[in-house]
Amino acid sequence: MEIKQLTLNFEKGLADAWSSCREYVAYRVHHQGKPQKAVAADMDYSPSDLSRKLAQNPDDSRRFTLDDLEKYMDVTGDTRPVLYLVEKYLARRRREALEKQIAELQKQLEAGDE
Model-level pTM? Predict the structure, then answer.
């Protein structure tokens, strides 16, 4: 008799833990084991410029752009921001589509019971 093991993961997904991809990247810049000043230098920014970009202050013209995201992934090798976007947009839409299908099937079952 074969016994199968079930593993449950109760950790929040990336999209549940951060409200934006930029916030996730800001977290990763500070918690990836490489000093922020080294990440900034690799991206050809000063540490203060990278901090300003990641802060996303509405009164500051320095903003974190899609080009910055690509540069960040190039210099760090961190592709998790893409996983964040996939989880936030593709996985959520797939779940919504499946929930819609379930609701339609429930209606069909209820109509068949009458």
Answer: 0.69
